[in-house]
Amino acid sequence: MATNIGIMDAAYFVGRSEILSWINSTLQLNLSKVEEACSGAVHCQLLDAAHPGIVPMHKVNFDAKSEYEMIQNYKVLQDVFNKLKITKHIEVSKLVKGRPLDNLEFMQWMKRYCDSVNSGLQHNYNPLERREVSKGGRETSKKSANSQASTKGSTAQRPQSSHNSRRNEVSNANPTNQAAKVARAAPSAGNPAYEEKITELKLSIDSLEKERDFYFAKLRDIEILCQTPEIEHSPIVAAIQKILYATDDNGTAVAEAQAMISVGRKEIEGLSPIAEVSEEKSSSETHKRKNIANIDFDVAGLATLSPRQRLSDVSDVHCSESPLMTC
């Protein structure tokens, strides 16, 4: 059973249309966007479909609009995760914001998990009946039924109208021209040049997808490294995250990241003890230079004195140094 799924698992490369088709067919809903399931109620019922009866559906609120009501649904989901010993972390603060990418990734994980349970088969599961006991579940079912009916009506009218227009075009067209068009189209269908071009484009798409997956994995590894507790608050990591999460492509993220690094470097230099030691060394060297200059000055002064004055100075020094001698 898949509880911990890696970021490079095939589940995270399932498209939005496939996810929506799976949700709508499993729960008999009519969602048009993945982020419409951000309230958490859909996740609860998907887990109830995988494990029938394990989710207390009477606690699920399909009419949740505020973040507080949505959080209550995710609490129910977390309790079920704990019962099933699922270690998947639910990022509730991101999901309730209705961001498309966050909701898509979590729904991709949900599909992967539900497919791993009984090969994704729900035996005798009635989503409408289970949803009726929930708050707002009956209204949700009615809205889905009405939207499905309107969608079926519109799709039924489109083929009929298109069929009538095509029949009119064929009746008004010249049979000779139609035959000529068919004759021109027949050789091009089996043209090896077209087949070679199609094969080349497919190979190009495959290589681009592999390159995309490679660089996505690299960026994901960098993101995980930046979340390490020992370094996550450093200026360099903050600058890397600034570039990593930049949404615009005008080049300002790099300049802002460089500014963050320079500011952090200045703060570190201001708090560095090495700079204080260097300042103390420079002050001591200046003091030594002053003492040396004073000694040189004294020597030069002595050179200008007469021999008698020198002797008197020496006698004064001897008298001052010894308390036993009197002058």
TrEMBL record:
Domain Calponin-homology (CH): 13-115
Main location: cytoplasm
Source domain of life: Eukaryota
Alphabetical GO biological process terms: cell division; protein localization to microtubule; regulation of microtubule polymerization or depolymerization; spindle assembly; thigmotropism
Keyword GTP-binding attached: no
Subcellular location: Cytoplasm, Cytoskeleton, Phragmoplast; Cytoplasm, Cytoskeleton, Spindle
Region span, Disordered: 125-193
Tagged with keyword Cytoplasm: yes
GO cellular component, one term: cytoplasmic microtubule
InterPro entries, alphabetized: CH_dom, CH_dom_sf, EB1_C, EB1_C_sf, MAPRE
Biased amino acid composition, Polar residues: 143-163, 170-179
Compositional bias of kind Basic and acidic residues: 128-142
Residues in EB1 C-terminal domain copies: 183-253
Keyword vocabulary terms for this entry: Cell cycle, Cell division, Cytoplasm, Cytoskeleton, Microtubule, Mitosis
Pfam family, one: EB1
PROSITE patterns found in the cross-reference section: CH, EB1_C
GO MF term list: microtubule plus-end binding
UniProt record similarity statement: Belongs to the MAPRE family.
Protein name from the UniProt record: Microtubule-associated protein RP/EB family member 1C
Species: Glycine max
Gene that encodes it: LOC100805687
